[in-house]
Amino acid sequence: MRATDAAYAVLKSQGQPMDVQDLLDETLTQLGVDREARVAARVYTDINLDARFQYRGGASWGLKEWQPRPSTRSAVRDRGGFDDDDTDELEEDDG
């Protein structure tokens, strides 16, 4: 099992963000690996690079899937889409 998959499983079973040190401890335990500074640093780096994880501040990490997804309407607006007010400007003047 890859370290990031083990970390994902740990967070998923916990159901809430965890302190990075606790996450590393649990992940290494899942992998059956002794905690050494070099190993822990490598796992932490892998977590940083994996898009499934999200830093929550204060040394806390969670899963990105726990974030609420923006509504379709606000996502379109955030990408430069149109608001209802903008559609009036697009109507052609037939007169």
Walk me through the structure.
The chain is mainly α. It has a domain at 3-66: Arc Repressor Mutant, subunit A (Orthogonal Bundle), CATH 1.10.10. The chain has helices at 3-14, 20-31, 37-49, 72-78, 84-90; strands at residues 18-19, 53-57, 60-63. The protein has a 3-stranded antiparallel beta sheet. A hairpin with a 2-residue loop joins strand 2 and strand 3. Helix 1 crosses helix 2 (20-31). It starts with a helix and ends in a 5-residue tail after the last helix.
Secondary structure layout plus pairing:
Elements: H1 3-14, E1 18-19, H2 20-31, H3 37-49, E2 53-57, E3 60-63, H4 72-78, H5 84-90
Antiparallel strand pairs: 1-3, 2-3
Helix pairs in contact: 1-2
Could you list some keywords that capture this structure?
95 residues, mainly alpha, Arc Repressor Mutant, subunit A, 3 strands
Write a brief structural summary.
The chain is built from 5 helices and 3 strands; from the N terminus they run H-E-H-H-E-E-H-H. It is 54% helix and 12% strand.
The residue ranges in which pLDDT falls below 50 over 5 or more consecutive positions are none
CATH topology of the domain at 3-66: Arc Repressor Mutant, subunit A
As a percent range, the share of helical residues equals: 40-55%
Given the structure, what is the number of helices?
5
- In CATH, the homologous superfamily of the domain at 3-66 goes by the name RNA polymerase, subunit delta, N-terminal domain
**Based on the structure given, which CATH architecture of the domain at 3-66 is correct?**
Orthogonal Bundle
Please state how the strands of the largest beta sheet are arranged side by side: 1-3-2
- Backbone shape: elongated
Spatial extent as radius of gyration:
21 Å
The CATH class label of the domain at 3-66 is Mainly Alpha
Number of strands: 3
Percent range for β-strand residues: 5-15%
Terminal CA distance: 69 Å
Quickly give the structural class. Answer: mainly alpha
- What profile does the largest beta sheet have? 3 strands, antiparallel
Helix-strand topology string:
HEHHEEHH
Overall mean confidence score, pLDDT = 85
